[in-house]
Design goal:
Acyltransferase_3; 14 helices; Acyltransferase; Acyl_transf_3_dom; transmembrane helix; 401 residues; single chain
Length: 401
Amino acid sequence: MNVASDSVLWALMAYALAVATSGLLLRYFPALQRHLSHPGQSRYASVDGVRGYLAFGVFVHHMAIIWVFLHTGVFNVPESTFYAQIGLASVALFFMITGFLFWGRLMEKRRDFDWLAFAVSRVFRLYPLYLPLLLLVIFSVFYIQGWTFNDAPLEVAGQILGWLLFDRPDINQYPQTGILISNVTWTLSYEVFFYMALPLFGMVFLYRRSWMQTVLCLLGIYLLYQLVGWEHSLKKHFLMSFLGGVAAAYWIRHPGLRAWSQTHLAGIIALVALLVVVTQFQKSFAVMPLALLTLVFSIIASGHTLFGALTLRSIRWMGEISYSTYLLHGFLIWLMIQRVPLSLPFDTKEPLTFVMLAALCCCLLIIISSLTFLYIEKPGMEAGKKVVHWLRQRAQAKAKA
């Protein structure tokens, strides 16, 4: 079988390796299990589970891209509909998860929504892992270039500032620096826009006061849209994905729809709709595929486990480490497929060599992501809670003074 074929077998083998690695980690390192809540204890257990499939799907998507690049010298979306959609549809569903969770929370809390905790938690969720990754990128660029400045130091500092804002300018004239991480940070710009615009959307749709407030909020949303997309304009069809999550937040609050979504028929419909998206559409960010993905996600958010596929322990652990998996897989691919072979006597263009390295990447990705979750992500989230507590204590002390 040709590695470049449209067969889903390669993806199934990759998932099998990842799930097996996750299962083995949970078995031989029982301490990991305390980070997993029991399926019944999590309000959105199915959503937690689906994250594991999505993050790893982006990895499979980028492995397909790198295979094509090795033979053509061009980075592009795979011609195979399945291998294109396993990444694109995963990103669309990730955006839906963000829209669903935070719009749903805003619907519940309304004016009691804790904006301070929200803002601090988002910073401490995104950056603790991203900063070490950025250091690895900078180190790799200068190591390859022999520790010389091809741009003025101030220019390099500006380029690094761009990366800190999730843009990906070339660092020190290293061509296509973003390729070192498969350019994955483009999605974080969309996440940041949603976070920043959320209070404005809330004032427009949830607690409106006057037409003037609505106009000012809409203007603010537009200005944010231009500011966040200053270098590379945010695409409206990508932002539509968040609306799918917002729709799901309303869906699950309708008793009839929620009850139907937990039936066997709904699960079958969700699987068929997902199959249609990943086999019949070349794009995910269009009206019809997004509508189908919204249906799929609404059923999952209502509590359907897709016949147990979303509540497997190994999958739930992959969901826990999904941010690490998503953020780090590009650098791992670049390192294992493009850099390490330069020092070894084999050719990654050879199918067997590529498959063996890809298999190794599958296992390493889960192991590394588990470690970074435990020692970087988790402490980062805890630090965010401490910062919120400190800020509140400081505010209270000032109020009493």
